[in-house]
Amino acid sequence: MNLQFYLEKLFASNEFKKFKKENKDAYLCSGFFSIDRQGKDNQQHFDFYIPLTKKMFSFKLEKGELSPLENYDKRIPEKLKEDFDFDFDEIENMIINKMKEENVNKQIQKLLLSLQGMEGKNFIIGTIFISGMGILKVTFDLSENKITNFEQKSFLDMFKIIKRNPKE
Asked: Which terminal residue of the chain, N or C, has fewer Cβ atoms less than 10 Å from its own Cβ?
């Protein structure tokens, strides 16, 4: 699937049309995509920021619902450029090729991809769960159509063991 398919689905929904009519200044500021290769937990969310009210709303395509986002960090999110398109399968293939290049011989189980804007560019920030309790942290620059950061971690790396101070 490509991003435009999901955007068209969003723009065609009555809930979104009503939202845009009521909030003409709202703009796309992020997206979240969950691609589950082992189950059926696929999700697509698009987040919109309303400058006038300083509020953010998320559209959950799989449920067709709109909900306010209460717990974001209150910074003004960057507006995403809407003149881009990418294919999720193509990004996954690039990740698989990078895994081969880095000798990561595991299977992708789930991809969590976040579409974000930083310094005028659009990025996909990915957390990829792989077999053997592994995790990949990937940054994909959409303007350059390439992976700019690739890091492998084990699930256990995510838990930091803090030594207790003997004087306590």
From this structure: C
